[in-house]
Design goal:
Length: 221
């Protein structure tokens, strides 16, 4: 039960890592009229879910958690560097680092001490901080993945609700529908081989690169 409670804490919107301040390109996609409705938002988020979360973030999270468990600093560094290399725009790389740094500052206050050999890696990406916390709190690998997925999905839907805009009820309906895909996403992430880890989200890359210079922004760039 205690591990479940620590997981809820790590995925809470109140966790001070600034996840709610980023749209990951969605803000420009809305301005460009690529995403203008509940149906189009569902398609956008589902594309990210199947072609990035299932094939990049979750597989890296699983590998990092195992590397921390095995005390393999080389693998920790490798997968953190790999994840950053897969971020296709300056904005997405900056977000990764900013969220990683924020979580790295928080972890000692949660009594999660990071060994010196891991400090640079943990500061480079939130996924690493999440993985080391999951290992510390003895959160099962699959539970950690589901929690990370839910946190990402909740932020993505709420960003769309604000930007399009949609009503809160539409957001809850989207969460209900899209979350039905999470078991399949988890299964795909677990089965993926090292040489298959990566993402294919060209629309997001375009939107993110344009968002970097978008004139009026609600979300961080």
């Amino acid at each position: 039960m205690l591990a479940d409670l620590r997981l809820y804490q790590l995925i809470s919107p109140g966790l001070p890592v600034g996840a709610f301040t980023y749209s990951q390109g969605l803000e420009w996609a809305v301005e460009a009229r690529w995403v203008t409705s509940e149906t189009e938002l569902e398609a956008w988020i589902t594309g990210m879910l199947l072609n990035s979360m299932a094939t990049l973030e979750l597989p890296v999270l699983l590998r990092l958690r195992n590397a921390f468990l095995q005390q393999d600093a080389e693998q920790v560094s490798h997968w953190c560097d790999y994840l950053l290399a897969c971020r296709e725009t300056s904005e997405l790389r900056k977000e990764e680092r900013q969220r990683g740094q924020a979580l790295a500052v928080l972890l000692p206050h949660l009594e999660v001490m990071v060994a010196p050999e891991y400090e640079a890696s943990v500061r480079s990406t939130q996924v690493a901080g999440f993985a080391v916390a999951a290992q510390h709190f003895d959160i099962a690998a699959e539970a950690a993945c589901v929690g990370y997925l839910w946190s990402w999905l909740d932020n993505a839907v709420m960003a769309g609700v604000k930007l399009i805009p949609l009503g809160q009820t539409s957001g809850q309906k989207l969460l209900l529908r899209i979350s039905e895909q999470l078991p399949g996403v988890l299964a795909k992430a677990i089965a993926i081989e090292d040489d298959q880890v990566g993402s294919s989200t060209p629309a997001q890359a375009i939107a993110s690169s344009r968002h970097e210079t978008q004139y009026s922004r609600l979300f961080r760039s």
